[in-house]
Write a structure and sequence with these properties.
The protein is an alpha+beta fold. It contains 12 helices and 17 strands. The protein has a single domain, classed as 4-Layer Sandwich (Chorismate synthase, AroC fold), CATH 3.60.150.10. The longest helix has 24 residues. This reaction introduces a second double bond into the aromatic ring system.
Length: about 400
């Protein structure tokens, strides 16, 4: 299974093509829209999320509510597009009517959006302009933007619909916003799901959530931004997804890549992660027991050993850096004039960790669905179910 996405953040729409879904899987469009709505929520987001109302429009690959086994294509319209149509039209003068810009500047009106030449530290602006030989940073920032994560949530939602047929579920919660951290605790999957669905920040502890909200408010007041950490968990994963035999078949590597490729994610930990490096072996490795089936007395490995699921729940964390666009300006240098400036900002998120946790949850769901199809693959849902049930029977006999 694979996918491609296209689209600029303020372009007409973002689009995607997903290939490799088996035939005869019932697709609940509401479930996809629910995931998209979850991604739009979370305390700390800026003005853009009040403009957008992400809804999936499926163009092909589904008939009568079921997959055909053919490529599935879809799009989400950008409701902000009418404000950018002139600037981002595929053909035309990019809206850079210099006379009009001059008149508008004189009259302090701002409907024309001039060329962007002031790169933001921490964003893709400067590196992208150098690499792609661009003089307008808009040609970089439009595609670097995390608007694209709406597509990743869409394909992840398809993945989770498939996983659900096999009783596998994925959830997430916010572990840290800046300096405010949720203490490590024994977590019950159903509890995380219910509480994180209710909470504005998607931290599962009410008191800590309030502290996180206060931290975001404080940071906003200061014109600053915040990062944090989220954790993704799964239930009912069978042992044996992924493989130890080649570097590019190892599931931990694939999950890390999927998470690291989310905008602003700078670190991934499986299970104990970095903490394992400072402990002794006896305090890290999960002892093996047998009770009708193999299981572990702890889950410090986070459900993966040797690049394969070991039958315990997957536990994986990702660290997000603070949002690069700051109301409190940082110094930078104008691309054209080479003059120093302090950036001014029109709108931005203060933090997007709660949104990123939903993206994380869905990219993990997609990678797991892919690994699931690699192991139990078939062209129809019925064939995959037969393969899966056969494998479960084999495991029962071990
Ligand atoms: C859900 C989400 C929302 C984001 N919102 C913003 C934003 O409003 N302003 C901003 O400058 N960066 C935002 N970012 C982060 C940038 O997209 C990201 O830092 C940039 O593309 C550079 O990539 P890098 O941080 O991975 O190096 C957001 C990221 C995510 C995941
Ligand atoms: C549009 C989304 O996130 C955007 C990601 C983003 C960035 O630079 O990554 C910048 C902001 O966009 P704008 O510049 O239009 O305010 C965010 O709102 C979204 O999540 O759907």
């Amino acid at each position: 299974m694979r996918y491609l996405t296209a689209g600029e953040s303020h372009g007409r729409a973002i689009t995607g093509v997903l290939e490799g879904m088996p035939a005869n899987l019932e697709i609940d469009k509401d479930e996809i829209n629910r995931q998209l709505a979850r991604r739009q929520g979370g305390y700390g987001r800026g003005g853009r999320m009040q403009i957008e109302n992400d809804q999936i429009d499926i163009l092909s690959g589904i008939r009568g509510g079921k997959t055909l086994g053919t490529p599935i294509s879809f799009q989400i319209e950008n409701d902000d597009w009418p404000n950018w149509e002139e600037v981002l039209a595929p053909f035309g003068d990019n809206g850079y009517d210099q006379d009009e810009i001059k008149i508008q500047k004189e009259n302090k009106i701002k409907t024309v959006k001039p060329k962007v030449t002031k790169p933001r530290p921490g964003h893709a602006d400067l590196a992208g302009a150098l690499k792609y030989n661009q003089s307008d940073l808009r040609n970089i920032l439009e595609r670097a933007s995390a608007r694209e994560t709406a597509m990743r949530v869409t394909v992840g939602a398809f993945g989770r619909i498939l996983l659900k047929e096999f009783g596998i579920d994925v959830t997430s919660h916010v572990q840290r916003i800046g300096a405010v951290e949720l203490a490590e605790q024994e977590l019950d999957f159903a509890e995380i799901r219910n509480k994180s669905a209710q909470s504005e920040v998607r931290c599962i502890d009410e008191e800590v959530t309030e502290e996180m909200i206060a931290e975001i408010d404080d940071c906003k007041e200061e014109g600053n931004s915040l990062g944090g950490v989220f954790e993704v968990r799964t239930t009912n994963l069978p042992a044996g997804l992924g493989s130890h035999v080649h570097w590019d078949r190892k599931l931990d590597g694939k999950l890390a890549q999927a998470l690291m490729s989310i905008q602003a994610i700078k670190g991934v930990e499986v299970g104990l992660g970095f903490e394992a490096a400072s402990r002794r072996g006896s305090e890290v490795h999960d002892e093996i027991a047998y009770d009708d089936q193999f299981h572990r007395l702890t889950n410090n490995a986070g459900g993966i050993e040797g690049g394969m699921t070991n039958g315990e729940p997957l536990v994986i964390k990702a660290a997000m850096k603070p949002i690069p666009t700051l109301y409190k300006p940082l110094s930078s240098v104008d691309l054209e004039t080479k003059e120093k400036f302090k950036a001014s900002v029109e709108r931005s998120d203060v933090t997007a960790v709660p949104a990123a946790s939903i993206v994380g949850e869905n990219v993990v769901a997609f990678e797991l669905a892919k690994a699931f199809l690699n192991k139990f693959g078939g062209d129809s849902l019925e064939e995959i179910k037969a393969n899966y049930n056969n494998y479960l029977k084999m495991l029962e006999q071990r």
